[in-house]
Write a structure and sequence with these properties.
alpha+beta; 5 strands
Length: about 120
């Protein structure tokens, strides 16, 4: 083999194979099930359960507005569950307060929500 061919082969083997993976932004999810009412109910229940799983004490629930609020160790957590025009449900988690005390809390809540939704 000649040197340019060997060099080209070495470079092609050394180059990493890349794939693009697009993921939903953390804390924002769209769900789909059979009926609009059951989609909202299922997402609402999964959200309340995810808060409980991660020790977030629910301080208020306004189902009509689609807002659940709670706190854990000085971190305020808000979930917004909104029915979309196409029948899907949009869920968003937000944290505020002393988030440095538990920077992974929002990720764990998201994971609990995903498990409860069967994902």
């Amino acid at each position: 083999m000649n040197k340019p061919l060997i060099l080209l082969l070495a470079i092609s083997v050394a180059m990493p194979v890349g794939c693009t993976y697009y993921q939903t932004a953390p804390g924002t999810y769209t769900t789909s099930t059979t009926t609009s009412a059951s989609k909202f109910d299922r997402s609402w229940s999964a959200t309340v359960g995810a808060f409980a799983d991660q020790g977030v004490r629910v301080s208020s629930q306004d189902r009509a507005a689609g807002v659940i609020q709670g706190s854990r160790n000085g971190i305020d957590v808000t979930a917004s569950v909104q029915q979309q025009a196409d029948g899907s449900v949009r869920l968003q988690f937000d944290t505020s307060g002393d988030t440095s005390r538990d920077p992974g809390l929002i990720d764990r809540i998201t994971q609990s929500y995903q498990r409860r939704m069967g994902r």
